[in-house]
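Quick entry between incubations.
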Amino acid sequence: MKVAIVKYNAGNIYSVVHALRRLGVEPVVTDDPEALSSADKVIFPGVGEASTTMEYLKRTGLDQVILSLKQPVLGICLGMQLMCHHSEEGDVDCLGLFNVEVKRFDLPREYKIPHMGWNQIHDLKTPLFGNIRENDFVYFVHGYYVPVCTETIATSDYPAPFSAALHKDNFYATQFHPEKSGDIGSAILSGFLSL
Amino acid sequence: MLAKRIIPCLDVKDGTTVKGVNFVNFRDAGDPVELGRQYSEAGADELVFLDITATYEGRKTFVDVVRRIAAGVSIPFTVGGGINELKDVETMLNAGADKVSVNSAALKNPQLISDIAQHFGSQVCVCAIDAKEGLPGDWTCYVAGGHIPTEHKLFEWAKEAQERGAGEILFTSMNHDGVKCGYANEALARLHDELGIPVIASGGAGKIKDFREAFAIGHADAALAASVFHFGEIKINELKDYLRKQNICVR
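Done. Structure below.
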């Protein structure tokens, strides 16, 4: 199986590479449109700031490449937020694959921001979570969130429910980091590779 | 519910794990990569690796260690020690670290925190603070592995670090470190009250109840310890079972 990881100016790409290698898959990290569109699976990772990253994707034409993908695509963290239609982080229009707006956490003082650490996921839908139990823990790091919407396939609470994962057509996305979520994360990546 | 994190810390010198008692008298505690993997399997939520090597050669060895950890460990890990400039941060992130902790270099040049946050994001930047309490409530920050006092005070410095974009504060009480009589819970609670970013408690873990108190009294978001884990005095799964029974949310 050919797995491509979208190469762009984001952190944590190599964490995803290592996680896939632990599953016995050697991914290619590329920004070549041809290599991306011909892969069996595409992963769009991300750690960074929304507006500068979106600007980079537009400048390089990667935005159009991602929009045109037909195979299963998995966005992770910022990758998921960039797949939504707008983000409050830098007030920027994003790819618009999911019809929902990314909001800034606005919480009472006892809730630390970013939402960082291991939290439970529930209301799990789709084969992405085939091997995952309700309330399993996964690792999150984010200061902005996607509200629960029709495309939500997993929620988490901080303290109110938000989208922990989204799905529409061939596009899947997780707010948490499966590549850093131990055995549960490996099982989710494995679920994605089996789609 | 967001879980409280348990974080084993591994001090690494010339590629080998060591742990000091009150920052001196090292005892050997094994290979950092193997320990990291074991802790990950045992249920650690995150790992911290501090490079306490002073030499250039040792530092290159550490980058290689970081690379091997990243390949073998599937939970987040922070690296620290000798992070002096943006280039060091980039080297560590490229080797596979999720976060870097800055300590002495940030006290000397606070702009470093702003630069890291701006270039790599706040989530990458852990501000480590070693502080010692003189008069009650009066905490002075130290640099150089706890050897040299500075003019900075704990609470002011922690707030400045947050304003500059640090994503977390890793607070080590030098009064408590290595003594194994519990964390500095009063100071932790004050940091929790005054800050909007997560606080990691460090220094003082001896018994499992010390962790409960760091969370319940100190309101810490995470608790870090070294020797009690390395020498098997506390098993992570037993610690978590205990915390669960005390109604503290853990993974």
